[in-house]
Every structure is written in structure tokens, then in C-alpha cells.
Amino acid sequence: MPDTKTIRQTPSHRYTAPPLLDTEILMPRNIALPHIEGLVSYEPGRPIEEVARELKLRPASIIKLASNENPLGPSPKAVAAMRRALATAHLYPDGGSYYLRQGLAKHLDVQPDNIVLGNGSNELIEMLFHAFVAPGDEIVCGERAFVVYKLCAAMLQARTVEVPFRNHVHDLDAMLAACNGRTKIIFVANPNNPTGTRVDNAAFCRFLDRVPNHTIIVLDEAYYEFLDNPPDTIGHIIGKRAPNIIALRTFSKIVGLAGLRIGYGIAGKEMVGLLNKVRQPFNVNSIAQAGALASLSDHAHIKRTRQSNKQGLAYLSGEFRKMKLEFIPSVANFICVRVGNGRAVFDALQRRGVIVRPLAGYRMPEWVRVTVGTMSENRRFIRELKTIMK
Ligand SMILES: *Cc1c(COP(=O)(O)O)cnc(C)c1O
Fold it and tell me: Which of 68, 116, 146, 190 to probe ligand 1 with, by most ligand atoms within 8 A of CB?
């Protein structure tokens, strides 16, 4: 008799397959976990080529102001380093990203052991769920916070407690009040996407001093480098030794490397160790590692990006004011404006070759979010918007 002993893993939840008739054709949906079919995919900003194909427009005539990318392009230093790295593309990357973690450690004045790398900071969000969240657990986030937190929670059958914003800003006291014994992660995006708002530093520090110690706190700082007077997040995490707090940052925004997919977390060594256990060995490719490392020293590109962004924000805000359109003052590289029917304005702009972001998914159906572009892109957007709103 063959050995039919099965290897048992400790199940975190039990799944019973639906009974199948012999004649029934087995479909993937019969095999999938029951909650998977109900998941909603993240809807990204639409790529230029896709819109060009669909609307029969020339790709060169289209501008994309939909994903908060850097309108000045990638850091030139990063591009040069990536060209050099291509010569060794036949080798697997350094799974531990030794040089990049050294470089980041120096840049941030922390230890290399305080850094964990992800295939975009989005992968780190997913890794945090794998490490800390089981079905039935809860997460707390703002109702207008980045939607990826909620999507990951649904994937792991965790409950999302969404706390209303106050004046378009995270209500940190209400978020603390929403925590209970089942709360595994609190997410605070600062500055937040899509609102472009920040919490003030005093409120932020008070919050960090009061967070429950049975909960992981994720500070998503994708737009941190755009801030004047940024909070001392690292001082809080490393200086004050807060083992349950992690900050997430990315190379996708200020240094213009969104296409490479690379971001990082800054946390205590124990947290970094846990995340490394759920990380795939070669999650960050060698070209991205080389580009990211070189971008750290490209101060000129970062400075130009911040200046151009400031100028763009001032221009867009001024035009919205003249057009008597309500907008949310932004500290990031995008801005939300109330246009009436957000979906209709998004469609009309797209037909005119300007891709922005509708916000119905954030329960802001009257708004669109526009990324700050180059000045000529910003002017084009305003011109098309005026034509449409007439
Ligand atoms: C753009 C963005 C990120 C960055 O994601 P990557 O995966 O690093 O490209 C993370 N969080 C928020 C809130 C963002 O808007």
C-alpha cells in the first residue's frame, strides 16, 4: 500500500472545496479561494500607448498627468548607472542589495539593517500584510487614503476600518480611537494620495507617541521629499526605538524611476528581519538597484524637480482660483480639483489627449486628480480644461 500520509501545515483558515460532479468541467474559479472572485483590481493611471490605440491618437500628442510621475524624466545619473549595469544583466541581482542598502544607510543616517527593499513600495505593503495580517484581523486607514491598503486587506480577508478625513486630512485621533485588539496595522500616508494633504508635525508626533504597541504603524512617505519642513520620522523610529513603526519611501516619485519598481522601508532591525522572511530573494532587479543608488547623489535633479513642482502647483492653483474651481491645496506633486462630473471631465480630457485621474473610487466623484507636469503640460491641461468646462 502506498504511503498516503499527508503533510499538514498549520492552516490559518480552513477551506473546503465545493463538491464537484464527475461531469463538471473544472474551472479555475472552482479551484480559487471563494473570496478571490470578489476582489477588485487596482485601477492604475492609463498608459499613453493604451489611450493612443483606443482613441486613435498619436502617442506623442498625449500627455499623462495621471500617476504622479516625475515630468522631468529619470535622474540622468541613474540612467548612466543603469546603462553600465546592463552589461551584467545575465547575472541574478544581489538579493541583499548590499551597495544600495549601504548607500541608503549613509543617505538617511541609519544602519543598513534598518532598510528593507521592495519591488516598489507597493510590494512592501503586501509584504507587511503577509507578515502581520491573518483572515479576520483588522487594519485602520483613512477613508481617502491610498486604496492599495484596502485592496491588500481584501486579498487576505482582513477587515478594513476606514476613518473619515477631517478637512481632507487624516484624523489621527479618530484613527487611534478606531483601534481595538484585532487591529494589526494602521496606515498613514503623509503626504496622502489622492488628497495631497499632510498632517501637521505636532499632531504627527503626538500620534506616534500614543500608538498602541500591539499594532504595526505604516507611515507611507512616497512624497516625503517634496515637503518643506518634513517630520522627523526616522528620529521617531530609530532614535526613539519604536520597533512597531515602519516608514515606506520610493524611487518612483522624486527621482523619477517609477518604471523600475523600487522602494524601501525604514524600520527597526527586528521588523526588517521579519519582512526579509516574506520577501522573494530577487525581488529588486539589478538595473533598478544601480539606478536607485546613483539617484541618491543626483542632488541637482532633485532640486530641479522640487522647483518645477512648486512652480507648477502655484500655476495650477492660481488658474483654478481664476476659474472659480474648488481645489485641495497640495504639498505633493499632484492636486485635486472639483470639476462637477469627474468621470465626464476625465473622458473629455482623455479625448483631447490629456490623461488625468477620476476619483470616484475614493468616493470623490466630483473631483479629478492631476499630476503636476512641466509648465507646458500644465498650460495644455488648463487650456483643455477651460474648453471642456465652457
Ligand atoms: C505612488 C505611491 C507609492 C509608490 O508606490 P511604488 O510601488 O513605490 O511605485 C506609495 N504610496 C503612495 C501613497 C503613492 O501614492
Answer: 146
Q: Is 19 within a domain? A: no
Residues with CB under 6 A from ligand 1: 68, 120-122, 146, 189, 193, 220, 222, 250, 252-253, 258, 263
The answer on 319 and 234 residing in a single domain is no
Same domain, 380 and 286: no
* pLDDT on residue 390: 85
List pLDDT tens digits, range 312-331. Answer: 999 999 999 999 999 999 99
Domain that holds residue 100: 76-297
Q: Select from 67, 192, 252, 285 the residue to mutate for testing ligand 1; criterion: most ligand atoms less than 8 Å from CB.
A: 252
pLDDT of residue 30: 84
Average per-residue pLDDT for the chain:
94
Please determine, for residue 1, whether its predicted confidence score (pLDDT) is greater than 50: no
Report CA(43)–ligand 1 centroid distance (Å). 13
The contacts of residue 244 (CB under 8 Å, 6+ apart) are: 211, 213, 215, 216, 217, 271
Taking the CA of residue 68 as reference, the ligand 1 atom at the shortest distance is: 1
Q: Tell me phi and psi for residue 77, to 5 degrees.
A: -65, -40
Q: Which of 265, 297, 329 is the last residue of a domain?
A: 297
Q: Residue whose CA is closest, atom 15 of ligand 1?
A: 193
- Pocket probe mutation, ligand 1, options 122, 126, 147, 218, max atoms within 8 Å of Cβ: 122
* Distance (Å) of CA 9 to CA 6, 12, 14, 276, 280: 10, 9, 11, 21, 20
Match 522624486 to its residue by C-alpha cell.
254
The answer to whether residues 290 and 218 belong to one domain is yes
97 within 8 A of 289, measured Cβ to Cβ: yes
Same-domain status, 210 and 264? yes
The residue whose C-alpha atom lies closest to atom 12 belonging to ligand 1 is: 222
Q: Tens digits of per-residue pLDDT, 3-59?
A: 555 555 555 566 666 666 666 677 888 889 989 988 988 888 999 999 999 999 999
**In whole angstroms, what is the distance from residue 50 CA to residue 350 CA?**
11
Looking at the 3D structure of the chain, how many domains does it have? 2
Predicted confidence at residue 29, as pLDDT, reads 84
Residue 343 lies in a domain: yes
